[in-house]
Q: What sequence folds into this?
């Protein structure tokens, strides 16, 4: 005789089956891809012409840096100029000089820094170390071609 709480012979226990289904569902949820990276390489050259992109216009790195400095200095000088203008104690020419001088000074400093950076990145001397026998050829070859029908003469000095 079989008790009602026992599974039928050869059939899995319903609670075990339910737990196994929940476990498999959790594993399937974990294995779902959350992102995808396309492995194909982008073409280096296409047939579509370049189009200006929104935002900062294309310009040199120096021009971009100088533009950022000028914007920062201009924004920083607005509260001072606005306060002086509201007070009414300042002539418009004086106000223009007060607002313009920090921007000009910042531009000069930015240019000085850029020139110093360029000078620092100048070509460094090439040092070559050789181990073993080295033959240094000091001959100079001069080539001269003259005439309607080319006649080349190579002379070697050394």
A:
């Amino acid at each position: 005789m079989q008790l009602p709480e026992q599974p039928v012979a050869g059939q899995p226990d319903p609670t075990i089956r339910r737990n196994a289904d929940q476990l498999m569902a959790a594993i399937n949820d974990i294995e779902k891809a959350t992102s995808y990276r396309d492995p194909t390489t982008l073409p280096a050259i296409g047939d579509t012409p370049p189009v200006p992109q929104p935002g900062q216009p294309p310009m040199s790195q120096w021009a971009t840096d100088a533009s950022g400095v000028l914007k920062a200095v201009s924004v920083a000088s607005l509260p001072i100029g606005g306060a002086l203008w509201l007070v009414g104690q300042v002539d418009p020419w004086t106000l223009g000089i007060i607002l313009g001088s920090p921007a000009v000074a910042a531009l000069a400093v930015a240019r000085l820094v850029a020139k110093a950076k360029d000078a620092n990145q100048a070509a460094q001397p090439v040092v070559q170390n050789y181990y073993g026998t080295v033959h240094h050829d000091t001959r100079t070859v001069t080539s001269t071609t003259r005439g309607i029908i080319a006649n080349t003469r190579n002379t070697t000095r050394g």
User: Anything to note?
Assistant: The helical segments are 14-31, 61-87, 92-120.
